[in-house]
Structure formats: C-alpha cells, structure tokens
Amino acid sequence: MRRPLSGRITALVAAGLLVPALAACGADDGKGSSAKGGDSTLVIYSGRNEKLVKPILDKLEKAVGAKVEVRYGDSAELAAQILEEGDRTKAGLFLSQDAGALGALSQEGRLAKLPQSSLDAVDPAYRGGAGDWVGLSGRVRVIAYNPDKVGDGEVPDSIHDAVKPRWKGKVGFAPTNASFQAFVTGMRVLEGDEATRQWLEGLSANGKSYANNLAALDAVESGEVSLGLINHYYWYERVAEKGEDKVGAKLHFLPGKDPGALINVAGVGILKDGDQAETAQKAVDHLLSEEAQTYFADTTKEYPLAAGVTSSVEDLPPFDSLESPDIDLGKLDSLQETLAMLQDVGLV
Amino acid sequence: MRTSDVTAHPAGAAGSAGRERVGETRGPRMSGRRATARRTPLILLVPACVAAVLALLPLGYLAVRALERGPRYAWDIVAGERTLQLLGRSLGLTAVVVAACLVIGVSLAWLTVRADLPGARAWSVLATLPLAVPSYVAAFVWLAAVPEIAGFTGAALALTLVGFPYVHLPVAAALRGIDPAQEEAARSLGHGPLRTFLRVTLPQLRPAAAGGALLVALYTLSDFGAVSLLRYDTFTRAIHTSYSASFDRTPAAALSVVLVVMTVALVAAESRTRGRAGHARTGTGTARPAARVPLGRWRAPALAWCAAVTATAVVFPLVTLGYWLAIGTSATWDPGALARTAGVTLGVAAAGAALTTVLALPVGVVAARYQGRGARLLEQAAYAGHALPGITVALSLVFFAVRYVYPLYQQLPLLLCAYAVLFLPLVVAATRAAVLQAPPVLEDVARSLGRSPLRVLREVTVPLAAPGVASGAALTFVVCMKELPATLLLRPTGMDTLATRLWTETGAGSFAAAAPYAAALILLAAVPSYLLGRHRT
C-alpha cells in the first residue's frame, strides 16, 4: 500500500523544520555571540589556567580600550583548534603556557610579526626566532625532594644523577606534561638523541610516572618517591594554598647549566588572521608592562621576563642567579620526535 | 486506538514473553512479510538519515585528516606495533570492565527486583547513583586515596564503578517485566531456582544485558578522564597525547579511525548476539509481578554485597569530596557563581538531551520495526561517534562549522550537536528496546484503519514507547552534564559548565576550590539518576 502524497509532503516539511528548530534551541544565549568583530572586541585564546591569569586579563579591557573575551582551554588543544580554524579563527591573541604551542603556530604561519619594541622588552633567549611571539614569564625545571628521605646535601646536582641506581624507584615525573616534554626536547638539542634516549631508559627503569606535576609533587610530599622532576612554581602555589609549614617537600635548583634546569616560558602571539591586530598589540604591550609583570611575579610565582621587574617571592632565587642551559627556545619545536622517543621508551 | 492492557505496563521489559508472542519476528513468515510489504515511511527515514549523517560527520573529518599526508603515512601509523599494543590494552580493559559490570549489574538487578532483599527499592536507587559521578572524579578520588592503584587496576575499578548502572538499569527493567508464568512452569517441571534462573530467566535478560554491556564497552573505549588520570594507555589516551604533543593531526586521526572500526565491530557483534526477537505481549492475560525469591541464609551476604558496591561507588567519592571541602585555604565559596554555573549546566544538558532524543527517536523506531541492511546501517551509523574521544568529535565539528556553517561556530547549537553525536546511542538503544516491547499489531491495526504513518507514530508507537524513551533522555541529560572535552572546545566563549569549572579549578591545583563544583555536579546529576532508578518500580 503506497502512502498518499500528502504524507510525504508532511514528512519533508517536518524534516525541513527540524534543522532550524534545532538551531533555535540555543539562540537565546546572549554571551559569546559577538562575531569576529574587528577591533571593537579582542578575543583571547588562553592556554593558561583561568585561576592564574583572569585577574590580569580582566584589567586588559581598560588597557586596550576594547571589550575582551577570553576562551580558556589547554594550550595544545587551543593551538590545535586555531590550526583547525585556519584563516577564519576568532582569536586575536594566543596566550600559551609553553613555547612549544607558540612554535607550532609560528611554523604554520599563523602568527603575525611583532614590532621590535615588543621583542626588545625581553631577552632574545625568551622569544620566537621568527619574531612572532614573545615570552611573558619564566618557569624553571627543578628537583623537588622529601627532606625526610633525602639529606640536603644528597639531592642530585645533575639530572643525570637521577638515573643512577641510588634512586631506583624513587624518582617521580610527569611524562605527558608539556613542560617535561619541552625539557626532554631541550636535552635532545643540548646532548643529542642517543644520550637522551639512554637517559630516558634509565628514568623509565628508575622512576614512577604521574599524571601531572602536582601529582608528582604530592608523591614527593607523601614520601612515595624521594625526588620529583617538576616546575618551580607548583611548589610555591602549594605553599600559598596550604602554608609553608604544611608542605613537606623542598626544592633544589640545579647548578652548572644542567639540562634539568631548563627555563621554559609562557608567552603570547598575535594571530595573523584574527583581524584584531591593533588591539592585540596593545594587549601585548600591557602584558609586558611593569604592572602585568609584577602580577606574574607575585601571583603565579613565575619569573617576570620584561620591564626590569624582579620577583618579590621569598626564597625564590634571583633570575640571574639561575644556571640554566643556553638554548634557543625556538628549537624546542621538534616535539614530535620527542614524543616518538618517549613512546619508544614506553613512557607515554 | 489504545489498548489499556498494553499501556498499563508500557515498555514493561526487554523480555515480556507472554504465551501469545505476537511480536515474534523471527518466524520466516513474519519476517518475509516485513521485508517485502512494509517500507520505512519517509516520516521516519528522513529524520533518521539526518541523525545518521550528523553522527557520521566525525568519520568524514577523520578520513580527510588521516589521508592528508597520503594513505601510506596513515597506513604506517595504523599498522605500527604500537597500534597493536594499544588495541590489546583497550580491548583488555574493555573486557574486564564489561565482565565486572555484568556481574555487578545483573546481581544487583536480580537482588533488588526478584529477591526478598530488605530495602530493595532503596538499593535499586543507590545502584543508579554512580551514573552521576564523572569518571575523572571517580579516578581522582581513588588515586588520592590509594596512589598504587594507578594503571590497569585503577582504570578497571574506576570505570566499573561508574559503568555498572548501564547494565543494572535495563536488566532491572527487564526483570520487572518478565511474565513469571514461564519460570513457574519450569519450577513445576522440577527445575531448581538456580537452574530456572540460568535456563529460563537469563536467556530472556540477554538482550537487555547485551545492550547494557555494549554501552559499557563504548563508554570504556571512549573514556579519557579516568585512563588519563590513572595512567593506563588506551587508544583515547594515545589519541589525546598525539594531538597535544605534535600538532600533527594525522596520527591522531588514523588512530581514531581504528577506534571507530572497533566500535562498529562491537555494535555488529552485539546485534548478532541479540538476534531479532521481539518481546511484546498482548492479549487478555495480565503479567503479574513475580513472587520474590526468599534469600534465607544468603540474606546477610547479599546485603553486604549491595553495601560494598554502594560504599565504593557512591559513598567513597562523596566522603572524599567532603574532605576536600573541609581542608584547604583556597576553598572560596562563591554561591552566586556556583548557582549560575549550575543553571547553565542544567540548561545546556537539557537542550542537549532534547536534541539527542529528537534525533535518536526515528533511528530507534526504524531499528526496532524495519529489517534490512538500510535499517541496520542507520543504527550502526548512530553509534559511530560514541567511541570517539570528545576532543576528536569536537575538532571535527570545528572543522565543519568553520567551513560550512560559520555563523554557528562557537554557538550553543554546535555544542548541542556534539552532545547528540556523542550520546545518540543512549537514546537509540532505549527507544529500540521500548518499541520492540510494544506490539506491532497495534500499529498494523492503526494503519489498516487509515491512519497516516505520522499519526501512527504519534498516537501509537511513541506513547507506547514513551517511558523507555524518557529514560534514555534522562540518561543523556546526566552524561551531558558530565561531558568535558567537547564542552571545552565548543562552548560559546565565556560560558562555563560545572564540568569546565571543575577542570579549571583542578588544573590550578586547588582541589578544595574544585570540590564545591564536583559536589554540585554529582548532586544535580543524582536527581535524574535517582528518577531512573525509581523508573517503573
């Protein structure tokens, strides 16, 4: 039995109505509906955590004289999103928590060249080789240790000591963490692939891997491991949250330009296709200003990189006293090879 | 027209096998009639195809991305040793989680529905509450308490504890609906209770248990939060790491394709095991509730079992959250922000569940009522997105929206579409099961009385299947509330859900500040979970 024509028409009309009806479901949402809007709005994709940078980005509105919309996410995921958006990206500014994601966008030609004045605000070591991104704050790789397990003098002075038999089963690290991977990339640049692979195999045999730096730090505090390879500010954040007397771990800054003392940066780049270059530039200027740099020093416990600001955090060694390895951060973009190596060794 | 007998216990069970098995479609005569005489009406076919196309979008995206650098490059990744290793790990974890969920889900369902367990109703509701716990929260509380649990053990434990309600719910519903006549007949023929259960009851539970097991398997394959926190390397984790570390999207896409193939194989295997049996009963007889089996000296162990499951799956996460709330100086209560975020979460989840249900309904009806390759393909297509990690689905929607529907990009409708792609199978499975239990003869009668397909759907099929569809929608509502990766990428700029807030707070290491959001998420998601548990009791 065939259905009458009217039935089919009803069906088609119903199907035709379906799509706009679905679209209407969410049409009442007021927020975020402004389209890519020239310079009246600045859209920032922030790979830095909202808790850490919201206060400073809130102040940007006044500084740049435009409405600021911030999209928070993971640095790598937002970079992947920008690559996926291509020239129709809504982002005017990308705030990354590491140099690697900025390097990836730079390589794909998504970033605009910055004026010399912005670049000059920061030491050449902490900006992109192509002049299209600039570091805002420095974060140092350190060794956290549990003083109940390790005497102050016993903490290794080199990352190479951590793979010696003395530390078997006693080293915590976070192999999926971007900073850890950047540090391994740095080691590859400094000491070559073969030496790095051997070191990773030693670490794999000696260490315990954790989901992130905080979990590794927790493991040090609880005595589950004696040493933890982390970034310095996690310890300072923990102290800020719990109070110093309740934090059981201590930090050791490695001397002698050891690869384990790598300084990575959180940085910023202007999107070439975001149509917000002028406002974005004002935002970059502000983020390099004394006010913003002081904020990074005081609040996120990182090292300010511009405007002659020094950190006021107690116990934090002065930036120029750090004996970090000489390395071009622009060369940290060979992350893929690092990942392949980590996979081969079985760490990720 | 309505038949009060049938609507009186709607969608009663996946196994309501009365003496008159009108819905039986396995017989050659019946299936022959169906295959030739009944064509899928356009009113169902067109929207079902819309849903299938939406669900297949990520697959199209993956094909584009995987082949971007030539088939050779993609093949090298797929055929690599690591892929095989990941395959083994993912399948191993899935097998263990599914087996554990079947044991817990079926045992709790039988104890709460068919045994004289004290407080059976309460236990039944408690057994659904783990639905409200996001896998990443379950993983985290265990990791915090027992760090050595990381790895396979922890991942299997966390996923089992949040996954077993997917088995418990349909099996409990099926048990409630089974006509006890067959069991009584078996008993009168001299079979003991155990043998009766194994030979008569269990086979009738198979479709419900298999459907639940499939959802658990897909959940395990697609979960990222728990395996990532517990450091057990599966496909999702490898895909995610690949996206994050290399910015070369080809390896991630190639691995995702393997994951989709696994899903399709699983769905096909499940549809093979369940057969095409219908379960409707009609006629003048009424199904009576079965007499409860006395537990006797097994009462104490049975109670201990229920208590142990509830304690590990519900009480433990809540107590741990309470502990977080109590300690830490960063626990800054901002009731205003919390309420606002909760409101947004409820709204978005409700809209997501509504869209998913609208899209899934025709697919479910077609899958239940129409045989043939087309119907099977439609159903399988609806499952395509379910095993993919949220980030893959999200990036595929970014890809399509930026190119073809730019005005929708970073707008709410696109996020809702992602929810639909991710969660279609939950409602498709529920709808299909519910429609199967509604006697098709009623639709035939309505049709012979000259009703149009739309009216038959509106006046007969949907009302009969409504409770089942509603439970699928409620389940989707819960999982939308918990969804994280796609929400992060696709939400309108500035919008926050409880899950994204939770992520933000834990990302900064302030577990105490994250606790209110985690607690609010669990408590809000517990309401529909509770209703699901009470459903048809």
Please give the structural blueprint.
The complex is a heterodimer of chains A (348) and B (537).
Chain A: H1 5-25, E1 41-46, H2 50-64, E2 67-72, H3 75-85, E3 93-96, H4 99-107, H5 116-120, E4 134-145, E5 171-173, H6 178-191, H7 193-206, E6 207-209, H8 213-222, E7 227-231, H9 232-242, E8 250-252, E9 263-270, H10 277-287, H11 290-299, E10 303-304, H12 335-345
Parallel strand pairs in A: 1-2, 1-3, 5-6, 5-7
Antiparallel strand pairs in A: 3-9, 4-7, 4-8, 4-9, 4-10
Helix pairs in contact in A: 2-10, 3-4, 6-7, 6-12
Chain B: H1 4-8, H2 28-37, H3 42-66, H4 71-78, H5 81-114, H6 120-126, H7 135-145, H8 152-163, H9 165-177, H10 181-188, H11 193-222, H12 225-229, H13 235-246, H14 249-274, H15 299-326, H16 335-369, H17 373-383, H18 390-404, H19 412-437, H20 440-448, H21 453-482, H22 485-490, H23 498-507, H24 511-534
Helix pairs in contact in B: 3-14, 3-16, 3-17, 3-18, 3-19, 4-14, 5-6, 5-8, 5-9, 5-11, 6-24, 7-8, 7-15, 9-11, 10-11, 11-14, 13-14, 15-24, 16-17, 16-19, 16-21, 18-19, 19-21, 20-21, 21-24, 23-24
Observed structural traits:
heterodimer; A: 348 residues; alpha/beta; 10-stranded mixed sheet; 10 strands; 41% helix; globular; disordered N terminus; B: 537 residues; mainly alpha; 24 helices; 74% helix
C-alpha-based Rg of chain B, rounded: 23 Å
The percentage of residues in β strands of chain A lies in 5-15%
Approximate helicity band of chain B: over 70%
Query: Cα distance, first to last residue of chain B?
Result: 27 Å
Mean pLDDT of chain A: 84
Rg calculated over all Cα atoms of chain A: 24 Å
Q: What is the molecular shape of chain B?
A: globular
Percent in helix of chain A = 40-55%
Structural class of chain B: mainly alpha
Using the alpha-carbon principal axes, give the shape of chain A: globular
The class by helix and strand makeup of chain A works out as alpha/beta
Strand tally of chain B: 0
Largest sheet of chain A: 10 strands, mixed
- Total helices of chain B: the number is 24
Unreliable spans of chain A: 1-37
Low-confidence parts of chain B: 1-37
Give the largest interface.
A-B, 70 and 65 residues
The biggest beta sheet of chain B, please? none
SSE series of chain A: HEHEHEHHEEHHEHEHEEHHEH
